[in-house]
Amino acid sequence: MAMPAAFSALIAATLFAAMLALGLSLRLEALLAWGRRPGLPLRVLLGSCVLVPLAGLLLLQSPLSHVLSPPMRVGIALMAICPSAPLTLRRVRNAGADHQLAALIQVGAACVAIVSVPLMELLFRSRFGVEAWITQPDSIALQVGRMQVLPLLLGLGLRHWRPRLADHLERPLDAIANGLLVAMLSALLLKVAPLLLEFLPANGPGLLAIALMVALAMLLGLVLSGDQPEHRSTVMLLTALRNPGLALLLANHAGEPIHGVNLAILLYALLTALISLAAVRR
Q1: Helical H segments across the chain, by residue range
Q2: How many other C-beta atoms lie within 10 A of the C-beta of residue 165?
Q3: Residue 261, domain CATH
Q4: 96 half-sphere exposure, CB direction, 13 A CA radius
Q5: Which three-class secondary structure state does DSSP give residue 228?
Q6: Total number of domains constituting the chain
């Protein structure tokens, strides 16, 4: 499934709007409070940006990986290396978790991803020799910086220097981000629904691999939350939920995209949403 230019632009616009809205939603007092006790945020960043990708690498070197199709292997690898998405905050709100902690970690993940995503991409590529996955590290860093860090910094700047303007923009921009998300998901489902029906029967083991990957990520979140049960659901969501928008952009900026990778990424995102929703439901 090749991704049309218009759909790539829709994904990029959705990510940009979501990160800009995130920057506007941050409250300096709450961020400073977490800054005085950084242990948990740093552990979660380590888990989301390093430990989850390494867990994915181990899974893809297990006997299960031998029965996975090439698009499933690459799709799982791409989702493993892309830390939690901006839209994770909506899931955190719905779960009644700590929004400001999640926002702080999202800020950190967006910045760390500039380094961690290219490094993990090189590690996965060297281990598996995927010839079609030839995106250069500087290209990955540019995508992460442009789609996540730039709009985040714009939102933070507005919140800091123009707080009244930020207050006026926060709700409309959040509504725009939600509207773009609905449009993106609707367009994607309309396009891929028939393709998914063809893709699923031949990729049953891939569904098991994704479920195992999500379970490993949530288990890491459970361990990383330590003796702070009040933040357990927040941490589990932040480690398990990945960034399908960034994964799709990376998959389609490769020199020779592998047919079916977009479908594998979509399946990963859907299964993660279902499993995480069930796991953190109160």
Answers
A1: 5-25, 28-35, 39-46, 52-59, 70-81, 88-94, 99-128, 137-144, 150-161, 163-199, 204-224, 232-240, 244-251, 261-280
A2: 12
A3: 1.20.1530.20
A4: 4
A5: coil
A6: 1
Q: Note down pLDDT in tens along the chain; length 282 residues.
A: 555 677 778 877 887 888 888 788 777 776 677 777 788 889 999 999 999 999 999 999 889 888 999 889 989 999 999 987 666 666 665 555 567 777 778 778 878 888 888 888 888 877 765 545 545 667 667 777 777 778 888 988 898 888 899 999 988 988 888 788 778 777 777 877 788 888 888 888 899 999 999 999 999 999 998 777 777 888 888 899 898 877 877 777 655 556 788 889 988 988 888 887 777 665
Q: Which domain holds residue 144?
A: 5-280
Using DSSP's 3-state secondary structure scheme, residue 275 falls into helix
